[in-house]
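[Meeting: bench + compute handoff]

Bench side (C.D.) handed over the final construct sequence. Compute side (W.E.) agreed to return the predicted structure before the next meeting so the bench team could plan truncations. Sequence as handed over:
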Amino acid sequence: MTVRPHPDTSLPERALLPLLRWLFDLLLPRHCAGCRLPDATWCADCARTLRTPFAVVREATAQGPPAYALGRYLGPARRAVLALKERGRRDLRAPLGQALAEALLKAAPPTPPAVPPPPNPHPVLPAPPQLSNCHPAPPAAPQLPNPHPV
């Protein structure tokens, strides 16, 4: 597992991070969440248990959209999901997320060929050359006879 220092950490603090990680591993050793192999978060053997998505048919999901899984909920896959969700093994987010992303890419339908967009039903028209045609002048006020001639 690579520890990335925060950008604001100074050089001495960055030098301490590997030492702290080593001490942490000494006190609480890392192991594979699926098979407990030492010094691994998620080993290659356990990663192979997650495969191409397959449809899951259950009575509870029969009326809804189709459901898929990457593996049976047993063995390494079950232990990894429980470690992530119930035991706070946040280091499993990356490998399990990567497995899900790769499976989605495999299962995605091929990209359809590019189709040009339909013509715009409301095209933008140029403005008329004379604005006076668009907005006629208001009518002139009526001329009343002057009651006091000069």
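W.E. noted at the follow-up: Residues 11-27 form the longest helix (17 residues). C.D. will use this when planning the next construct.
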